[in-house]
Amino acid sequence: MATSFASDIKPLFTALDREHMMGSFDLWDHDDVKANASGIYNTVEDGSMPPSGSGEPRWSPDMVARFKSWMDEGYPA
């Protein structure tokens, strides 16, 4: 089954994640996340985001893999 932004990717980002990034881009907007996907992937894959002390949990390996699959599938909406 194909990964979609609406049902599989957007829910990975919490309201706090979105609030923290709004000065740069909107984590709940398909086009913004697509445009910044490589950077987002690198930071969640290496564990540097969300930052420690933010109160947000690190992404699990499954979450990181889901995001990578979405990228590999061509960023479906």
Give a concise summary.
This protein has 77 residues and is mostly helical. It has five helices and no strands.
The total number of structural domains is 1
* Helical content band: 40-55%
Q: Cα-atom Rg, whole angstroms? A: 12 Å
Could you list the spans in which at least 5 consecutive residues all have pLDDT below 50?
none
Mean pLDDT, all residues: 92
Write down the overall geometry. globular
Number of H- or I-type helical stretches: 5
Strand content: under 5%
The secondary-structure class comes to: mainly alpha
Order of helices and strands: HHHHH
- Please count the beta strands (DSSP E, at least 2 residues each): 0
Largest sheet: none
> How far is the N terminus from the C terminus?
14 Å
Describe the secondary-structure layout.
Elements: H1 5-9, H2 15-21, H3 30-35, H4 37-45, H5 61-72
What are the defining features of this structure?
77 residues, mainly alpha, 5 helices
Explain this structure to me?
- It is a single chain.
- This protein has one domain (5-72).
- Helix content is 51%, strand content 0%.
- The chain contains five helices and no strands.
- The longest helix has 12 residues, at 61-72.
- The chain is globular.
